[in-house]
Design brief:
- Chain B: It is found in: Nucleus.
- Chain B: One of its GO terms (molecular function) is DNA replication origin binding.
- Chain B: It holds the Pfam family ORC5_C.
- The complex is a heterodimer of chains A (about 425) and B (about 850).
- By secondary structure, chain A is an alpha/beta fold.
- Chain A folds into three domains: about 180 residues, P-loop containing nucleotide triphosphate hydrolases (Rossmann fold); about 90 residues, no CATH class; about 110 residues, Arc Repressor Mutant, subunit A (Orthogonal Bundle).
- Chain A contains 23 helices and eight strands.
- In chain A, strands 2-3-4-1-5 form a five-stranded parallel beta sheet, sandwiched between helices. In chain A, strands 6-8-7 form a three-stranded antiparallel beta sheet.
- Chain A is flat, with a radius of gyration of 29 Å.
- Chain A starts with a helix and ends with a helix.
- By secondary structure, chain B is mostly helical.
- Chain B has four domains: about 290 residues, no CATH class; about 220 residues, Rossmann fold (3-Layer(aba) Sandwich); about 110 residues, no CATH class; about 140 residues.
- Helix content of chain B is about 60%, strand content about 5%.
- Chain B has a five-stranded parallel beta sheet with strand order 2-3-4-1-5, sandwiched between helices. In chain B, strands 6-8-7 form a three-stranded antiparallel beta sheet.
- The termini of chain B are far apart.
- The chains are: A alpha/beta (about 425), B mainly alpha (about 850).
- Chains A and B meet through helix 1, helix 2, helix 6, helix 7 and helix 16 of A and helix 21, helix 24, helix 25, strand 5 and helix 35 of B.
């Protein structure tokens, strides 16, 4: 039923198209690839020159998460694979998966085998595999084939003995081999992590991925959000959609929303995530993006989990939090549930609050707070102590607590008063 | 019978005699439980005159019951002697509890054999006697399998037992004294010369015994066989378990005839007679088991135990229900159980919910208060076949995260793979469970419950996962192309969703620092637009931050239910809506100030509602204002106690024994606000354990320096000095000390101090001991006899978490203990003993 409806309704199709675009990094970074001084062109030049000149090379791509390092690299690689189809083979490793040398060399061997239609043995030892890799490097060099190693999360490869990096780079020192090692990392100091023997073999070519300029962003927004004229979507709908989008993009309020977003996190990835949420909020019955969509997306992307968490607390839990805050203000170095209870009792004694509960109930509320991770034990080792005696600390600042109390629905007035003194 | 003997004799064991002992025990276990019962009674009667106290208590042990079912081919006659043997044997080795006793003995094996051998060396001539006796026995009975050697075996072990436990044997068998021969035996047993005394006696009794219907008093040589039963226990570990099961059944039947006090006395005895730590641990479980028996539903607990194995097996074989969440498990059961039990081959259909898709209206009405979240989740998932970014669904416990997510998939009827990090508690299990689902692999006996792929490392997992996903997506695409008029069962679309529940658990895993970023980056690593990833977590996204960094998923927050939501939730499925809504008017507000968790509230409310509607005779009657007011006034004072009862934290030892039901009983049976039955303990504990608990409490609370003044012969608190003036400095000190006490909790103490205090208070409190009954005294004898068992009691208290065994003191090197008992509980225990605890408690 839903499918038929969405066949008739162009908005569903448009939404699908936009979502596909936003989740496809290749499409997103195509827009940034045309200018001559873009990272795309630089990277393409370096790799293609080392392919054509049959030399060894190594490059680091550095930039924050979501700045499109891998996406740009993938774009370049797919271009080069089309350009020189027979000469290039790409080996992709990820530091999250292959930071262990054994595992990494195995994966390299596996991918090399796949690439060259060889039989891969799962039981081969580290030694076998590394010998195989070195032999393959030499063979490929002799056949004038370039092997490109892509090491994602490069910093994770720099942990431990760095045997993989050393053996790769060392093999590249020989004249016969022909390989490019591309490290991708979000740590700018990653070359400092390398051992001396590895660093000396590494060519210190770095490409920095910087946030896009404002003009670029605007261009990007239009490129990514406007519907193509040559699709199967009805012409009339597309025109109207694009017209409305232009209005929104020109709107000052929209620019403000985008500004606040980029002040949080200026990477393209964050922006794309924001746009994805905004597009998801698009009302399918109306079928067009509205400014409201962007505003709700902005509010939902900038969450303050701790504040939300405090707002969810029950009144008794708030009492305990306030008691803890008061203990901290009193500069008590460490405190536990028992000291909180004495504070709680003293509050009750002096103010005669209506919310006075037995110790058991408070202990339960206390455990809820631990579950919510608003408070935590100061030490990890339980040391055979029961919960009441283990010392505890607040994970929120007094300012946060104050703010949350003020926004809490029906917060007891006494708590606000207690916060102040 | 003969077969049994053969088989058991073949068991290779160290000493010959140990092996042989098996035979005796093998047929000792002959008849069905019915006979046991009747004959028990008859023997009991016959004993009564002479063995009044002791044998009674022994009976209780149930040791004589031994009705093992697998020896049914045996004649029933031999039962009788066995039983009576066991009576006697019982007092020699009273700790041989019903089942665990057997195991405990296996642990103490070394001791037994040692002792046994000693005896053997000392009295080599005994064997001869015994053989003679054995032959006689064989002639007189229908039992053919009895070995001669068998007899001497039991003989030795009997000696071993008696010498081993000479103290107890002495104490226990004083009542036996009337029988002159037996008294001889007892005396002899102290020095290890049991046999000359008792062997001449046994042949005499044999002929008239005749084994059936005999009212004979127990005879010494029977004892031997009983003892051989014990020794058998340590040999036949595997076998023993069967015996144990049978014994347990018998015990249940007979146990009903006996009163609670008997158990109490018995427990003391059990524990008295075991000396080493290992056995003590086993004993701890016995005593707990016994508590269950005393608690009332004996039969149940035992039947359950014996049935457990079967049930487990059955559960294994039935297909595991995949898509059940807490709230939906009941409704799902019917559907899931229709699957065939034999090797079910999952198909692509299994990736869907396999149920009638939920309409949108139903979805919304099923989850009151979750409308916004459902809508947002639907939006983020998007229309059919649209790719998505990873989503993190988070919110407190019992806010409906998992249910909503899964039901949304039911509504959309899209394929998904659900795995919870609670059940998949390690990376490997998590990976394999996902792969199994994707590869349509189900663990069963055919593949010996193995997974489809073995993968531990994320790198392998990604490779396998990519393969599996590609084939599944291929499949899905093929389906779409093939059948445009597809059935409703077929999952929709070509997207496949991976749902990871309870993600917060991953943080506690060993390799959390690599697994967490891996999971968060999974969609980037896979680079497959057809795969959607959904994380569900109890904790907010900021608790996952690490210095690794990751592309944050889109977050979707499930806030706690508001009061209005809660009202809607509780009003759902109520038969008497009017009554319930007036009830909610009363209770919802005060409870919401404490907690807004549905699970906790529903537990509390179900209890309260019963109380609320209690005064109403006709539940359907219309509620008028006056009625409401009356009900309200009746309920109002009860709210606070229920609040306290239901929100007790179960980690406290005190609460283990308590159930909500009891709380209800309490609240409904008496006037609110008065807690007169606080004197009563909710659980059972032996007297010496109680004293031990009190002494541990005292040792924890009182400073060690005050022990002398508190417990010296002048006694009481008179020794305390109260001359100190409340100067500024001392007050300050006092405050500091108070602070310290709050922070530190109960103090630790070495074992020696605990024992010293224990001895002091038991010697001081002699009077309550007299009240307990004379048999207690006779068993315990002097306080010197107590010492060995206190260690045992201590270890069982440790196991019950009343006393915590801490690390060793760096200076002294001995283990230190501390109590986990609250003051209320200690006072309660003291009151049950009529022990003036507050007199000994040092107050700062």
């Amino acid at each position: 039923m839903g499918k038929e409806k969405h066949n008739k309704n162009p908005s569903g199709k448009a939404l699908n198209l936009l979502r596909t675009r936003l989740t496809n990094p290749n499409f997103i970074f195509k827009t940034f690839s045309d200018s001559p001084d873009s990272n795309y062109s630089k990277l393409k030049f370096i790799i293609s020159s080392s392919v054509t000149e049959a030399c060894n090379n190594s490059i680091l791509l550095l930039g924050p998460r979501g700045s499109g390092k891998v996406a740009v690299l993938e774009l370049v690689l797919s271009d080069l694979l089309q350009q020189y189809p027979e000469v290039i083979s790409v080996i992709r490793l990820n530091g999250l998966l292959h930071s262990d040398d054994n595992c990494a060399i195995k994966e390299i061997a596996r991918q090399l085998c796949m690439e060259h239609q060889l039989l891969f043995s799962k039981v081969a030892s580290f030694d076998d595999n590394s010998q195989f890799v070195v032999a393959m490097l030499r063979e490929c060099g002799l056949a004038h084939k370039t092997i490109i190693f892509v090491l994602d999360e490069f910093d994770l490869f720099a942990q431990g003995k760095q045997r993989l990096l050393y053996s790769l780079l060392d093999a590249m020192q020989s004249v016969t081999s022909q390989a490019v090692v591309i490290g991708v990392s979000c740590r700018l100091d990653v070359d400092q992590l390398l051992e001396k023997r590895v660093r000396s073999r590494f060519s210190h070519r770095k490409l920095l991925f910087l946030p896009a300029s404002r003009e670029d962003t605007e261009r990007f927004l239009e490129h990514i959000l406007s519907l193509p004229m040559d699709s199967t979507l009805p012409q009339k709908y597309t025109v109207e959609f694009n017209e409305r989008l232009k209005n929104i993009l020109a709107d000052e309020r929209f620019k403000e929303v985008i500004n606040t977003c980029s002040s949080f996190n200026s990477t393209i990835g964050y922006l794309v995530k924001f746009l994805f949420q905004a597009v998801s909020y698009m009302d399918l019955d109306v079928g067009f993006l509205s400014l409201e969509n962007f505003k709700t997306a902005a509010s939902s992307i900038q969450r303050q989990p701790k504040l939300e968490c405090i707002r969810d607390c029950s009144v008794l839990e708030l009492y305990l939090l306030v008691c803890m805050k008061r203990l901290e203000v009193k500069e008590q170095t460490s405190y536990n549930f028992n000291s909180i209870m004495t504070e709680y009792k003293s509050i009750h004694a002096s103010f005669q609050t209506s919310d006075y509960y037995a110790r058991n109930v408070c202990l339960r509320a206390f455990e809820h707070l631990i579950l919510r991770e608003l408070i935590s034990f100061t030490d990890n080792k339980a040391n055979n102590q029961s919960v009441e005696y283990r010392s505890i600390k607040l994970l929120i600042s007094p300012v946060e607590l104050d703010q949350a109390l003020k926004s809490y629905r029906s917060c007891p007035a006494i708590l606000l008063k207690l916060m102040d003194r | 019978m003969a077969d049994n003997e053969e088989g058991e004799e073949n068991v290779p064991r160290g000493n010959e005699w140990e092996v042989v002992s098996l035979t005796a025990s093998a047929y000792a276990a002959a008849p069905g439980p019915k006979e046991v019962e009747t004959k028990e009674n008859s023997t009991d009667d016959s004993y009564e005159p002479e063995v009044a106290e002791t044998s009674r208590a022994l009976f209780m042990s149930g040791h004589f019951v031994f009705p093992p079912s697998e020896h049914e081919n045996l004649p029933i006659e031999p039962l009788e002697p066995d039983d009576s043997i066991e009576h006697v044997g019982k007092d020699v080795v009273p700790e041989s509890g019903v089942d665990e006793g057997g195991r405990s003995r296996t642990k103490g094996e070394e001791d037994w054999t040692l002792k046994g051998l000693n005896v053997h060396d000392e009295f080599p001539g005994l064997q001869f006697f015994d053989k003679k006796h054995g032959t006689e026995f064989e002639e007189g009975t229908t039992l053919q399998g009895l070995d001669l050697i068998d007899k001497d075996q039991s003989l030795y072990s009997a000696a071993a037992f008696s010498s081993f436990h000479s103290e107890e044997a002495l104490g226990g068998s004083t009542t036996y004294g009337e029988d002159s021969i037996v008294s001889e035996l007892v005396e002899a047993s102290e020095q290890g010369i049991v046999f000359p005394a008792d062997i001449p006696q046994s042949p005499k009794t044999l002929p008239d015994a005749k084994y059936d219907g005999s009212n004979l008093p127990c005879e010494a040589w029977w004892k031997r066989r009983a003892v051989s039963l014990y020794t058998h226990a340590k040999d036949a570990n595997a076998f023993w378990s069967i015996f144990v099961a049978a014994a347990v059944m018998g015990l249940v039947i007979i146990g009903q005839h006996w009163q609670q006090e008997r158990w109490q006395a018995l427990q003391l005895k059990w524990q008295l007679s075991i000396n080493n730590e290992k056995t003590g641990r086993v004993l701890g479980s016995i005593s707990r088991l016994k508590d269950v028996i005393v608690g009332g539903h004996r039969r149940y607990s035992f039947w359950n135990a014996s049935l457990n194995a079967k049930l487990m097996a059955r559960e294994e074989s039935s297909p595991v229900t995949r898509r059940t969440t807490r709230s939906y498990s009941t409704s799902n059961n019917g559907v899931e159980s229709t699957k065939p039990t034999e090797f079910y081959k999952p198909t692509l259909l299994d990736l869907g919910f396999r149920q009638q898709p939920l309409s949108f209206e139903d979805l919304l009405s099923n989850f009151p208060g979750r409308r916004a979240q459902i809508l947002e989740l639907l939006r983020l998932l998007g229309p059919l076949n649209s790719p998505m970014f990873p989503i993190l669904v988070y919110g407190g416990p019992s806010t409906g995260k998992t249910s909503v997510t899964l039901q949304v998939f039911r509504h959309l009827n899209r394929p998904f793979v659900y795995s919870s990090c609670v059940t998949c508690y390690s990376p490997r299990i998590l990976f394999e469970s996902i792969l199994n689902q994707l590869l349509f692999h189900r663990k069963n006996s055919g593949n010996s419950y193995s997974s489809s792929k073995r993968c531990e490392k994320p790198s392998d997992f990604v490779n396998y996962l990519r393969e599996a996903l590609e084939s599944v997506i291929e499949n899905l695409k093929g389906n779409v192309g093939k059948s445009s008029s597809k059935s409703s069962e077929q999952p929709n679309g070509t997207m496949i969703y991976l749902v990871f529940d309870n993600l917060e658990r991953v943080r506690k895993w060993d390799k959390s620092s690599t697994i967490l970023p891996f999971l968060f980056n999974l969609s980037d690593i896979l680079k497959m637009p057809e795969v959607g990833i959904i994380f569900i977590s109890n904790t907010s996204p900021d608790t996952f931050y690490s210095n690794m960094g990751y592309m944050e998923p889109i977050t979707l927050y499930f806030p706690d239910y508001t009061e209005d939501d809660l009202r809607q939730i509780f009003m759902a499925n109520q038969s008497n809506r009017k009554l319930y809504s007036s009830f909610l008017d009363v209770v919802l507000r005060p409870f919401c100030r404490v907690t807004r968790r549905v699970d906790e509230l529903s537990a509390a409310f179900s209890l309260l509602f019963k109380m609320y509607s209690e005064p109403l005779s006709d539940k359907e009657a219309a509620l008028n204002e006056e009625m409401k007011r009356r009900l309200f006034s009746q309920l109002q004072p009860r709210i606070a106690p229920v609040l306290n009862e239901t929100f007790q934290v179960p980690s406290q030892p005190l609460l283990k024994a308590k159930s909500i039901q009891e709380a209800m009983k309490k609240c409904s049976s008496k006037m609110p606000g008065i807690h007169e039955d606080h004197d009563k303990m909710d659980f059972h504990m032996s007297t010496s354990a109680k004293y031990l608990l009190i002494s541990a409490f005292l040792a924890s609370k009182n400073p060690a320096t005050l022990d002398a003044s508190l417990f010296d012969s002048f006694g009481g608190s008179d020794g305390r000095k109260r001359k100190r003036k409340a100067s500024e400095k001392s007050r300050e000190q006092k405050e500091m000390a108070e602070q310290e006490l709050l922070m530190k909790g109960p103090g630790t103490f070495p074992l020696e101090r605990l024992l010293a205090i224990f001895q002091c208070i038991t010697s001081l409190a002699e009077d309550p001991f007299d009240e307990e009954g004379s048999h207690d005294l006779t068993i315990e004898g002097g306080s010197s006899g107590l010492m060995s068992d206190v260690l045992l009691q201590l270890s069982s208290l440790c196991n019950a978490n009343f006393i915590i065994k801490g690390g060793s003191c760096p200076l002294e090197g001995s283990t230190r203990y501390r109590t986990a008992v609250s003051e209320e509980l200690a006072l309660k225990v003291a009151r049950s003993l009529k022990f003036p605890l507050s007199k000994y408690l040092y107050r700062r």
